[in-house]
């Protein structure tokens, strides 16, 4: 049986309130044996930890999402940092980043919040899980001073061009997170990935969002990760077993603390 790692799932979100336990079971039955869960903000940590305490295959991460940055961002970020300092075990700093798609009001504040969380990742030697939407210039401006710092992580939900991929992969400690978008009919991602080594990719769902074909338009879940892996098999001309083995190895390299616990 194949073994896959979902490096980005929000199974603690309210969309799973009716069947969360079944979703975890379905993931395992599909061969998705490890589920890494980025936090969203100060309001979601307790539900995240409650799920992860129940299931040893669930690994919590801690961070503050850019779309949660508002007028009270300083206090809210401080509350998230309290969790980081609490003694709870976290496996990454995320979900963090920049998002100017809906609103540019807090552009500078988002950059400050990201920069602080980059420093958390370095201080605790944890991978950084980066979200970026319509904000590559700002993201790269924040990251530039850390180019040679040893920072590691995932550029989550990568959907950019070949040039974008080349620029991001200059950060040698980072992987590109590939999800259901790669299966979409009009996606240019399969062509872009032909220029990207499989050694720099990890799999993710971003569930409950971005369900792959043939589930597009429905709620996503970790069990559907196999569809992403199958599509990558088509892109690279490799069997599913090889895609599973390589992307799992890539994820374990990144999540070294988790890797030592398996």
From TrEMBL:
GO CC annotation: cytosol
Keywords: Hydrolase, Metal-binding
Cross-referenced Pfam families: TatD_DNase (PF01026)
Entry-linked Gene3D superfamilies: Metal-dependent hydrolases
Database matches in InterPro entries: DNase_TatD-rel_CS (IPR018228), Metal_Hydrolase (IPR032466), TatD-like (IPR001130), TatD/YcfH-like (IPR015991)
Binding-site residues for a divalent metal cation 1, renumbered to this chain: 8, 10, 95, 206
Domain of life: Bacteria
Binding of a divalent metal cation 2, residues: 131, 156
GO molecular function: DNA nuclease activity; hydrolase activity, acting on ester bonds; metal ion binding
Family: Belongs to the metallo-dependent hydrolases superfamily. TatD-type hydrolase family.
Protein name: Hydrolase, TatD family
Organism: Phocaeicola coprophilus DSM 18228 = JCM 13818
